[in-house]
Amino acid sequence: MRSLASIVLAFESVVLALVTPVMISIADVRPAIAIPTCLGLFVLALLAAGLLRFQAGYVLGSVVQVGAVGLGFVVPVMFVLGIAFAAFWVAAIVLGRRIEAAKKAHEQLSSAAPTTSRES
After folding, report:
1. Distance (Å, rounded) from C-alpha 52 to C-alpha 29?
2. Fewer Cβ atoms within 10 Å of its own Cβ: the N or the C terminal residue of the chain?
């Protein structure tokens, strides 16, 4: 689960960094607002990726998803990108849990099965 979630956050951090000049040049947002907002979300995404071994990383990652969707009020295309990354985020968590459960079940079956040795 952690690796999938970190991949989503890493790609999203790139998008969040690149939306800064878009906000300044196309949406006419003052640099004093655009830079701290977008680059702040960029740093939060990277921080969340680093903290994914703890529950706080997933909470912070979810906050980043809300912020990315919220940028859509300034740059409308961010609604699409933010919702896409939020869907990837949810999918990473759901699929990650399923993969971990399957690994755990496989390990239990492997450890419960008697081992036989073949002699030639």
Report:
1. 32
2. C
pLDDT tens digits for range 59-104: 999 999 999 999 999 999 999 999 999 999 999 999 988 988 898 8
Cα 60 to its chain centre, rounded Å, is 10
> What is residue 26's DSSP assignment?
T
Return the residue matching tokens 């961010």: 78
Main-chain phi, psi angles of 34, to 5 degrees: -65, -45
Residue with tokens 């979810």: 62
Average pLDDT, rounded, for the chain: 91
